[in-house]
Amino acid sequence: MKLLERVEAVAARRRLARATVECYSGWIVKFLRFCRDGDRWRTPAEVGAGEVERFLTHLAVNRRVSASTQNQALNAIVFLYKQVLGEELGPDHLGKFNAERVRRPARVPTVLSVAEVARLIDAVPADSMAKFSFRIFLANLEWSAL
After folding, report:
1. Alpha helices in the chain (DSSP H)
2. Residue 124 confidence (pLDDT)
3. Would you call 48 helix, strand, or coil by DSSP?
4. What end-to-end distance do the CA atoms of the chain give, in Å?
5. Opening angle at CA 138, ends 134 and 143, nearest 5
6. What is the C-alpha to C-alpha distance for residues 123 and 106, in angstroms, rounded to an integer?
7. CATH of the domain spanning 3-89
8. pLDDT band at 94, cuts 50/70/90?
9. Whole-model pTM above 0.70?
10. Domain boundary assignment for the chain
């Protein structure tokens, strides 16, 4: 049985969604393609933690993928080694690896407190069009709330 057929068989036993299986299969192929040695494909048994680190770092640095995309790739590789190949390679074949991870951007709050809005309004000159427009906006909000 070929590797991707084994991935599908294990995924079916675990009742994974079809979209998950397709996603994992795609990442497994990309990972193994990344680990090729010239024209020769390497078996997953030949690939270790160093290649996983290099692949995940490549995704973060060169491909500039998002954190969730990098996590998808990692989950696909872990699924391959722990669920599909776990019995023949052993659960600790990959060992520990320390790849460069993508950092999620800090979220900026979208709601201002009452005090922040008051400071913002006070910072705008009294005769500016911005302050006038903002007051019209607030009046419209009050009227629509009635």
Report:
1. 3-13, 18-34, 49-61, 67-79, 86-89, 114-123, 129-145
2. 77
3. coil
4. 69
5. 145
6. 26
7. 1.10.150.130
8. low
9. no
10. 3-89, 114-145
